[in-house]
Amino acid sequence: MPQIGLRPELMLDQRRVDARLGSDVPYAGAIETLGRKSLQRDCQQPLGARAPPPPPRLSAPEIAAIYRDNAMLIRLGMILGLAGIAGFIALVCVITTQMRHMHTSSRLPADLQLGAGAIGVLTLMFPNMVLAIAAFRPERDPALTQMLNDIAWLFFIPAFPTFLAQFGAIAIGALTDKRPNPVFPRWAGYLNIWLALLLVRGAFAYIFRTGPFAWNGLLSFWITASAFFVWLIIMTPLTLSAINRTSQGDTHHA
After folding, report:
1. Residue 239 in contact with residue 98, Cβ under 8 Å?
2. Rounded distance, CA 53 to CA 144, Å?
3. Which terminal CB of the chain, N or C, has fewer other CB atoms within 10 Å?
4. Count of other CB atoms within 10 angstroms of residue 166
5. Within a 10 A sphere around the Cβ of 187, how many other Cβ atoms?
6. What is the DSSP letter of 24?
7. Can you tell me the mean pLDDT for 23-49?
């Protein structure tokens, strides 16, 4: 019996859809909690990880079938992803606080890191919300579901400008800090530059639907996601170390 509320073109052979999708499993949200313990434990996971995304080559009925068959899983995953963004917000704020202890010619690096990081939060939140909206009414016209899916991924994958500014600000601060015991080591500055450049290739997701530059491809998705993951697992302990040194310094001056 046909499912009520679904258009006929949605009645696909699930085996055909599975064969087309291959290993492209729907998304899972990554959980990161707020506070210092979250920085030590959870911020080392890629924020809002949704891997791998469905290929952009899929037709509207095939995309709609993914959301229809996994609606509740996607909704719950996006809720968890949104909750995890609190950890990234905490990390951005703590990095800014530590950067304001740097001996630099101006506060621009710290302020730029804060502003770019705050905007970067939106580039993580908005795709989660759009994917949840797409799964909220999976019986809608498949073309609309496909459009929501496109909006989410094409908002998320090419969102390099905010992180380019954020990582660049950290790099400038680390490389110009004149403290005898700098907040972040100089190699962290060079690392931030390198990781920021790796994120730029995500912009090509606007052009390609297949291959390494597609939004699920090796360069646009996997390298970009890996770069962000490396940033988290490196900057989290460096920031915690900076907090400890600052606390010890305050104790000695007390």
Report:
1. yes
2. 18
3. N
4. 24
5. 11
6. -
7. 38
Q: Helices 71-99 & 224-253, crossing angle to 10 degrees?
A: 40
The contacts found for 216-225 with CB under 8 angstroms, 24 or more apart, are 216/24, 216/52, 216/53, 216/54, 216/55, 216/56, 220/157, 220/158, 221/51, 221/52, 221/53, 221/157, 222/52, 223/198, 224/157, 224/160, 224/198, 224/199, 225/46, 225/49, 225/51
Using CB atoms within 10 A of its CB, is residue 251 exposed (0-12), middle (13-18) or buried (19+)? exposed
Spatial distance between the Cα atoms of 68 and 6, rounded to a whole number of angstroms: 9
Residue 169 has pLDDT above 90, yes or no: yes
Q: Is the separation of the CB atoms in 63 and 142 below 8 Å?
A: yes
Q: What's the one-letter identity of residue 120?
A: G
Measured CA to CA, the distance from residue 128 to residue 146 in angstroms comes to: 15
* Closest residue by Cα to residue 12 from 75, 72, 62, 58: 62
Extents of the domains making up the chain: 8-245
In this structure, the chain runs to a length of 254
| Chain CA centroid to CA 73, Å | 19
Per-residue pLDDT reduced to its tens digit, 94-118: 999 999 999 999 999 999 999 999 9
